[in-house]
Each structure stands twice: as structure tokens, then as C-alpha cells.
């Protein structure tokens, strides 16, 4: 899913206030909630030994004409058969992102077909997609040499170890939803955040990192939140999410200053300060602002639609369950969704550390699963798939509950 702004890309920005107005306008677009999208990401491993470092040349050969230009300069980056583009993250993680769809069954069919095609391409090179939200075998290692990732890595390394882990070792499942009509956007924004801890706990699978037990159910979440806090952490839920996000974007550090061959930005430079003239003779343009927005990684990122980024990647076809659950929930009355999520609302860190072992996270997960499966027929998918997903979700919360009683 893509968004576009209304200002010429090369127009200089006159002030922070002007930049904030632009962000609020392009990041939250209103209308009936109609379109859905999903993006799947995997770490990539050698089939014979998942501990071996990934080689950029071998990955390039595997992806062929589908490789992005960040991996193979001049590549045409042809889409997969059902329309998804393949991109590559700094550590060699591969991601597929297909066109938005107004049909969830079609979205699932197309995404499954393109995921199978990508897996086949990897297997032909004796590579396999990972099954977890975090590389459990290897330490972070950047294989892309483009200026964007060099600058981001340099900026994140100053803040601690989590940034390189997020860039090079994590893999996520992203679900994209329309923001809705103007009078419902704030409630949908809150619901996606309130649901976050329950869903993080329910689908957490990234406990191990580089061969060691981290003690976190979702160490991917730990790495993401720790990358550039507070800007990668859940935001305060303001009554006006567009205005709040615009302020956040202005206060966030500039990670990439696209000038010359080296894109390192001055330490401590925020976009708001840049827009207000902190760099004499160098005003940011709207293209610079759009690029800055692409370097922000909150749990839910507004891009004209709402991009849910807080879920660990799932093994095999495991991405279907969270996709159906979340899209079904967002079709239900928002008061029911908020009530189901309420026991764990705001408990992001307990959810990431303990998963469903946290009592309140488990309670919310049970209620969220019950509501989501009750309205899952609204997604239009085949009843057999609904039954399979409902059984899978119920088993997840029941297993945790029974295990606690047994102990």
C-alpha cells in the first residue's frame, strides 16, 4: 500500500509548522475502510546450516530479476506472479509487499502464492526462509552497502546494541488497514494500539537471539522498542493522532541526510530544527520529509493508511491467523474491541517479556480471540479456513491457561 503527498518534492520547507501540517495531511487519509494489505518478511538461511553467514551474491543469484536495486544495482525488480515486490533489508532479510486489495480472500490467495514463489526461488539456491521474528542463530551483520543503511547503522550504534539487531536480525509481519472516516480514525488508531500487547503476546516467537535465550517472549519487540526510544516505542494516545504524529516526526532525529556519498546526519539534528533553519543554506524539501518519515519505526506507522508493525514473523502459513484475526477485529464495533483489549492495554513490555504468561495479557488475548473468531465470517474467507484459524487461536490461549493450572 502506498501514499502520496500533494506538494512538489523539491519545494523547500519554510518552517516546522509547515512540515507538521504536511505530515498530518499525508499520513492520515480519510474514507471508508475498504483496502487491506499484508507484508511478509523473513530472515534467510543456508538450508544445510542456518548458522552460516548469508552471502549477498548468493541472495542476488536466488532472487534474479526480482532483486531490488539496493541488492543488485540496475535490477528491474520485476514483481512476483501475483504482483508482490521483493525487497531486502540490511541483514539480508527478504520481504514481499503486494498491492492493496478490497478482498481479504484474494489478498490471502495472492500473498500465499507469491510467498510460495519466493520460497521456491530461495530453495533453488539452497536457501530457506526463517521461521521466527528474530534470527535465533547469527549475530547482526549488514550485507547491503547502500548509503541509507550505512547512515542508519551509524546513528543507531551510538544508541546501543538494539538498532543493529533491528536492522539486520529481525523479521516482522505487517498488516495494513485504512484509517477510516475522519470521525472514526482516532478510535481505530487507539484500538490498534490497545490490541497490540495482546497480539504481541499471542504471536510472540522470538525468544532466542544468536544462539542464546534472551528471556523475552518477543526479543524482536525488545530490539525494535530499544532502537531509538522513545520514537520506536508506543506513542502517547492523543485525541488527535494526526497532530500527535506530526509532532513526533518533527522531534525525531534525522537519520539520513542525503547529501553526497555519505548520508550521516549531524548528531542531535531533529527534522523540526532542520525545517526551522538549523543548517544554514540547507533547507529540507518535501522529498526529504517523505524520506524522513520512512526512517521512523513505531509499532503502528501512519502512511495514509495504518501499517501495523508489532507482530513477529510467523512460520509457514502462520501469517494467515493474525491477518484474519486483526482484520476481523477491525470490522467489529470499536467499543467491543476496546473492551476486549482493555486488560492488557498499554502492557507492551510485559507482553514482550512474558508473552501469554502475563495474566492480564492472557486475559486480553482470550477475549480478543473470542471476539475476533465470532466476527471472522465478515472477512469473506472460506468457512473451513475460518474454522482452522479459530482452532489454532483457541489452542494457543487454552494451552497457556491449562499449562498454568497444571503448574
Automatic annotation (TrEMBL):
<comment type="similarity">
    <text>Belongs to the glutamate--cysteine ligase type 2 family. EgtA subfamily.</text>
</comment>
<keyword id="KW-0547">Nucleotide-binding</keyword>
<dbReference type="GO" id="GO:0005524">
    <property type="term" value="F:ATP binding"/>
</dbReference>
<keyword id="KW-0436">Ligase</keyword>
<dbReference type="InterPro" id="IPR006336">
    <property type="entry name" value="GCS2"/>
</dbReference>
<protein>
    <recommendedName>
        <fullName>Glutamate--cysteine ligase EgtA</fullName>
        <ecNumber>6.3.2.2</ecNumber>
    </recommendedName>
</protein>
<dbReference type="GO" id="GO:0004357">
    <property type="term" value="F:glutamate-cysteine ligase activity"/>
</dbReference>
<dbReference type="Pfam" id="PF04107">
    <property type="entry name" value="GCS2"/>
</dbReference>
<dbReference type="InterPro" id="IPR017809">
    <property type="entry name" value="EgtA_Actinobacteria"/>
</dbReference>
<dbReference type="GO" id="GO:0052699">
    <property type="term" value="P:ergothioneine biosynthetic process"/>
</dbReference>
<dbReference type="GO" id="GO:0006750">
    <property type="term" value="P:glutathione biosynthetic process"/>
</dbReference>
<comment type="function">
    <text>Catalyzes the synthesis of gamma-glutamylcysteine (gamma-GC). This compound is used as substrate for the biosynthesis of the low-molecular thiol compound ergothioneine.</text>
</comment>
<keyword id="KW-0067">ATP-binding</keyword>
<dbReference type="InterPro" id="IPR035434">
    <property type="entry name" value="GCL_bact_plant"/>
</dbReference>
<comment type="pathway">
    <text>Amino-acid biosynthesis; ergothioneine biosynthesis.</text>
</comment>
<dbReference type="InterPro" id="IPR014746">
    <property type="entry name" value="Gln_synth/guanido_kin_cat_dom"/>
</dbReference>
Amino acid at each position: 500500500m502506498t501514499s502520496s503527498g500533494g506538494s512538489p518534492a523539491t519545494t523547500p520547507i519554510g518552517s516546522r509548522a509547515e512540515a507538521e501540517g504536511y505530515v498530518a495531511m499525508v499520513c492520515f487519509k480519510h474514507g471508508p475502510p475498504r483496502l487491506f494489505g499484508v507484508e511478509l518478511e523473513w530472515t534467510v538461511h543456508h538450508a544445510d546450516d542456518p548458522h552460516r553467514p548469508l552471502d549477498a551474491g548468493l541472495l542476488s543469484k536466488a532472487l534474479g530479476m526480482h532483486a531490488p536495486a539496493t541488492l543488485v544495482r540496475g535490477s528491474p525488480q520485476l514483481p512476483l506472479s501475483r504482483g508482490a515486490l521483493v525487497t531486502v533489508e540490511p541483514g539480508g532479510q527478504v520481504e514481499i509487499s503486494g498491492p492493496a486489495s478490497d478482498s481479504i480472500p484474494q489478498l490471502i490467495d495472492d500473498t500465499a502464492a507469491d510467498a510460495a514463489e519466493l520460497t521456491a526461488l530461495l530453495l533453488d539456491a539452497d536457501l530457506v526462509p526463517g521461521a521466527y521474528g528474530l534470527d535465533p542463530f547469527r549475530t547482526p551483520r549488514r550485507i547491503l552497502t547502500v548509503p541509507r543503511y550505512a547512515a542508519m547503522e551509524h546513528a543507531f550504534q551510538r544508541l546501543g546494541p538494539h538498532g543493529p539487531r533491528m536492522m539486520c536480525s529481525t523479521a516482522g509481519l505487517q498488516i495494513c488497514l485504512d484509517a477510516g472516516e475522519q470521525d472514526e480514525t482516532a478510535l481505530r488508531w487507539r484500538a490498534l494500539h490497545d490490541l497490540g500487547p495482546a497480539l504481541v503476546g499471542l504471536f510472540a516467537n522470538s525468544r532466542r537471539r544468536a544462539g542464546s535465550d534472551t528471556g523475552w517472549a518477543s526479543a524482536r519487540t525488545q530490539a525494535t522498542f530499544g532502537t531509538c526510544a522513545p520514537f520506536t516505542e508506543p506513542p502517547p494516545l492523543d485525541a488527535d493522532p494526526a497532530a500527535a504524529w506530526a509532532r513526533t516526526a518533527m522531534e525525531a532525529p534525522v537519520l539520513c541526510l542525503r547529501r553526497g556519498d555519505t548520508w550521516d546526519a549531524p548528531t542531535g539534528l531533529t527534522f523540526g530544527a532542520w525545517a526551522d533553519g538549523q543548517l544554514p543554506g540547507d533547507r529540507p524539501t518535501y522529498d526529504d520529509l517523505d524520506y524522513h518519515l520512512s526512517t521512523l519505526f513505531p509499532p503502528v506507522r501512519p502512511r495514509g493508511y495504518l501499517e501495523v508493525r508489532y507482530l513477529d514473523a510467523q512460520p509457514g502459513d502462520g501469517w494467515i491467523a493474525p491477518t484474519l484475526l486483526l482484520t476481523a477485529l477491525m470490522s467489529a464495533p470499536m467499543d467491543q474491541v476496546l473492551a476486549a483489549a482493555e486488560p492488557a492495554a498499554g502492557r507492551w513490555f510485559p507482553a514482550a517479556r512474558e508473552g501469554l504468561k502475563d495474566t492480564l495479557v492472557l486475559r486480553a488475548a482470550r477475549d480478543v480471540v473470542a471476539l475476533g473468531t465470532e466476527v471472522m465470517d465478515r472477512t469473506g474467507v472460506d468457512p473451513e479456513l475460518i474454522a482452522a484459524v479459530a482452532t489454532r487461536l483457541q489452542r494457543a490461549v487454552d494451552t497457556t491457561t491449562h499449562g498454568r493450572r497444571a503448574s
